[in-house]
Amino acid sequence: MKIGIPRALLYYHYFPLWEAFWRNLGLEIEVSPPTDKQILDLGVTAAVPEACLPVKVYYGHILTLANKVDGLFVPRLISSQKGTYICPKFMGLPDMIKHCGYKLPSIIAPTLNARQRKGAWERSHLKAAQELGFNRHLAQSAWQQAQRELASYYKELQGGRTPVDILYQRQPPKTTPGHTLLLLGHPYNIFDEFVSMNLINRLYRRGYRVITPEMLPPRLVEREAARLPKHLFWSLGRLLVGAATYHLKE
Question: Does the pTM of the predicted model rise above 0.85?
């Protein structure tokens, strides 16, 4: 069986986890190509007009994969960390995709909600694997290996490489001393080179070292975000505010 993973939305945060999980179950992984005008045009045509640009891009990646795979991995993302939420559009993606009016392969849509008791993401992935016919023991082993892959990815991020550098296996160029920019933005905007108009590489060419929120240990981000007088419950909002506050202080 071949499973398609769209190169969009939270691909830049969780692809190593998802790719390793399905690969360690013995499935073949097909990732959609980097965003281009054709993919965007497909998404604009398929999505409802009210959808934001990143969601329209996601539609385009789904349709690009549709004829190449046996199943599409479209998780229903509700929360990635305790006490927070992801944008509601992420929650409705499996339903929106299923009813977009195009012929699609089966949709694999585990519900990922970290607001539930500990281990909720693991249970959802194991359930999705069991529904495809894999036994629980094999799925648990695949999940443990996938967790190690994700931890290794996060370690590389905290070493100063952007998600694009790591996932595309590129080394950032040498930069001018003292030229450092903190680039704040949602990952599906700043790391998609078509959507961002190749922003990171433009900065590299001008001699800048680029740092992003993903390079900070989560404990530092949480510490700074917690200083707000009111709890910020959007996951990506906490990441951006926490990172910005930390770097302003430091």
Answer: yes
